[in-house]
Amino acid sequence: MTPAPPPAHRAPAVTVVGIGADGWPGLSPAAHDALRGAEVLIGGPRQLDLLPGTCTGLRVRWPSPLRPAVPALLAEHAGRRIAVLASGDPMYYGIGRALTETLGDGALRVLPHPSSVSHACARLGWPVEDTEVVSLVGRPAARLAAALHDGRRVLVLSAGAGTPAEVAGLLRERGWGPSRLRVLEQLGAEAERLVDGVADTWDEPPGDPLNVVALDCRRAPDTPRLGAVPGLPDEAYEHDGQLTKRHVRAATLAALAPAPGELLWDVGGGSGSVAAEWMRAHRDCRAVTVERDPVRAARIARNADALGVPALRVVTGAAPAALAGLPRPDAVFIGGGLTAPGLLDACWEALPAGGRLVANTVTLESEALLAERYRAHGGELVRLAVAHAVPVGGFTGWRQAMPVTQWSVTKSGEMS
User: Fold this and answer.
1) Number of Cβ atoms within 10 Å of the Cβ of 39
2) Is the distance from CB of 286 to CB of 265 less than 8 angstroms?
3) pTM to 2 decimal places
4) What is the β-pairing status of strands 153-157 and 211-216?
5) What is the distance between the alpha carbons of residues 285 and 300, in angstroms, rounded to a whole number?
6) 77 and 40 in contact (C-beta within 8 Å)?
7) Is residue 224 reached through a cis peptide bond, with omega within 30 degrees of 0 on the bond before it?
8) What share of the chain is helix, strand, coil (3-state, %, to 5)?
9) How far apart are CA 244 and CA 388, in angstroms?
10) In the structure, what pLDDT confidence band is assigned to residue 5 with cuts at 50, 70 and 90?
11) Based on the number of CB atoms within 10 Å of its own CB, is 237 exposed (0-12), middle (13-18) or buried (19 or more)?
12) What is the pLDDT of residues 186-195, one digit of tens each?
């Protein structure tokens, strides 16, 4: 039998060229050839202005907002040689991701340039692999809070000239004022500049919009220490008593077992502690919390900001009705309202095979419901009892918290 010929090679439809602040002289010969040969040149105004007149293709500026415009703009110029300009490494917080998602694998030829992260680490003497990177380009500054740990080195990708002052203000507000803050502007260009200071006393005027902020994190002595694992101190949350307490919360997150990219439904959010700590487990973890009380829903959003997970989605409404239309979860936590008609069934039905469900309760009525489901579907049924040492006169004794019954199960089939 004659083997079938290999599929014809599909030439990339678009070339993406990373360019730095050093402009045209910093590009490779391959990048020069791609840009001179392009019939259409797409990029931001600053990037397009770095090209010489020998690049004769039609120059098209990205519209704003950029992301929704990508498919239509590429379709408009389909069949022509297209080169897209990107800052630094196009596949590192760059336009390369949006282009790949639009065109598919194999449709891009990417010619990267050293990223601003590589430039900054080279200037600072920081190993890249040991440096945390947080992008604030099109993202809220509150997400920086999740990266703040004593002694950590963090690079912040700035959204513009105002980002350094915004970062300094957040550090002061969150109790990280002693942190050293350095702003590296125009990395790789002749106009490169470094501004050095401390967040507590930062009063520098806005500089160049093309900058990266480098942080040596230092916590103020009276700032609570927040660890990297579930079970943050209860004091880390604003709450009205509706809070999954620290030790039970740690056990709950262990049962939920968050993994990168997964989505949690936190039903009966209360203070949002389980959803917040699910998202802190990995930057790609996602969560939706459903809370019927508008006051508590607003409180959940504030807690999410304070703990560096402002992307937590808060849905105000009563479950199960409020669950309609939500994206399918990988795991569900039910922290309240178990006896609401249809709630447990709706959560179970939403889970795919392999999805996890964890439900906590302190009432006999809900405990009976969990026992029934445990008998029918297995999993693990545990009682969590925590006691705290408290003064008893001149001595010390134990004060027992209400025991929590927890059912955790992995779905392997449809619920009867």
Assistant:
1) 13
2) no
3) 0.90
4) antiparallel
5) 17
6) yes
7) no
8) 30, 25, 45
9) 16
10) very low
11) buried
12) 999 999 999 9
